[in-house]
Amino acid sequence: MDIRLEEPRDWRAAEELTREAFWNVYRPGCTEHYVLHRYRSDPAFIPGLDFVMEDRDGRLAGHVMFSRAELLLGDGSKFPMWTFGPIGIRPDLKRRGLGLRLLLHALDAARTLGVGALCMEGNIAFYRHAGFGLASRIGLHYHSAPPGAEVPYFLARELRPGYLAGIEGTYHPPRGYFVAEEDPAGFAAFDATFPAKTKAFRPGQLPQFCRRCGAPLRADADCGLQPGGGIDYSLCRGCSATVPVSRESPPQQQA
Ligand SMILES: CC(C)(COP(=O)(O)OP(=O)(O)OC[C@H]1O[C@@H](n2cnc3c(N)ncnc32)[C@H](O)[C@@H]1OP(=O)(O)O)[C@@H](O)C(=O)NCCC(=O)NCCS
């Protein structure tokens, strides 16, 4: 497997891979391929930390991207931080050590580029292998939790030793991660350019809530019906039957 910087010729294949890797993992369907698609033109995107992994036949096996972020400090100032993701491995190649190899490669490159520390939301069972720990243990707070609360999926690590010494701040994921919620129509149009796939509720997904009224969504029976007859996994049955869809503010992050 070869790891190299992503090039424009890889863009579509990386989005396809990301969609396959994330499909039904955290929610019915996924939005990470749209996040990746939109991030490439976001000033927070870091082209020098946008990697693909390629197999011997030239097919993509994995992808990871990084973004600039920030911590909000108690005095209202901002402190430079970084984050990464989506990171995805082609489904037929998962759990063979490739994700960790890709991530460690990218972290080495990030250190070389001067990245001081990283915060992200993820599964500690994977990220501990790359040196990540609970962010709350080093004085970092998660935006939607009370200061000091231990948030099991809010992870961090320093790349430059001492970068976070004496720093206590709150992490808000950058806006680039919410493009699908902010622009559901744009996301739906983009997703429709990929092959049809079946959305489904699966054990281990994040809790899902109706985008408009906040009702919990746990099964197809809870969800809204689209005019064409398909299920709308972002709306509840009650809302979609009575009120037209509005697209004002993005929902609270559910991770
Ligand atoms: C998460 C992902 C990138 C990991 O890559 P991978 O190649 O499958 O994982 P690796 O084989 O490199 O795993 C390295 C270690 O982490 C563990 N690990 C990997 N994924 C894990 C998971 N989902 N849950 C628990 N442990 C996991 C492995 O068991 C392995 O530990 P071990 O050596 O002690 O067995 C990949 O599975 C993927 O694309 N998943 C779907 C998308 C996703 O969830 N991305 C991350 C978003 S935060």
Fold blueprint:
Elements: E1 2-5, H1 11-22, H2 32-39, E2 51-54, E3 60-73, E4 78-89, H3 98-112, E5 117-121, H4 124-127, E6 133-134, E7 140-142, E8 154-158, E9 169-171, H5 179-182, H6 184-191, E10 208-209, E11 216-217, E12 223-225, E13 231-236, H7 237-242
Parallel strand pairs: 7-9
Antiparallel strand pairs: 1-2, 2-3, 3-4, 3-9, 5-8, 6-8, 10-11, 12-13
How would you explain this protein's 3D organization?
This protein has 7 helices and 13 strands. It is α+β, with helices and mostly antiparallel strands and 255 residues long. It has 2 domains: 2-177, Gcn5-related N-acetyltransferase (GNAT) (Aminopeptidase, 3-Layer(aba) Sandwich); 207-255, no CATH class. The strands form 4 sheets. Strands 1, 2, 3, 4, 7 and 9 form a 6-stranded mixed sheet that branches. Strands 5-8-6 form a 3-stranded antiparallel sheet, with no helix packed on it. A hairpin with a 5-residue loop joins β12 and β13 (231-236). α1 runs antiparallel to α2 (32-39). The longest helix is centred in the middle third of the chain and has 15 residues, at 98-112. The chain is globular. Bound molecules: coenzyme A.
What keyword list fits this structure?
three-stranded antiparallel beta sheet; 7 helices; alpha+beta; single chain; binds coenzyme A; disordered C terminus; 255 residues; six-stranded mixed beta sheet; 2 domains; 25% strand
